[in-house]
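Dear colleagues,

As part of the handover before I leave the project, I'm documenting each prediction I ran so the next person doesn't have to rerun anything. This entry is a single chain, and its sequence is reproduced below.
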Amino acid sequence: MSNSFVSITVKLFAAYQEAYGVPELKLEFPQGTPVKAVCKHIIDERPELAKWQDVTRYGVNLLFVEPDTPLKNGDEVVLVPPVSGG
């Protein structure tokens, strides 16, 4: 009955947006995939982002979540690298 894949939107900010040149991506992952796999997928495509992997926070539907939080169909995922400011 349920699809074996979930479709998500990934909002890109800071270094992630610079690497892709777009504000968001539409991706599909197998059902039950943790949100941290989104970051791994992006780093596999853009290895220059690897330096941000261990310091990136994850948001799903406007809430910060743990890296192991499973994705659900229609989720909006945000990868938040450290932002410097003053």
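The mean pLDDT is 92. The first helix runs from residue 14 to 20.

All the best with the project,
I.
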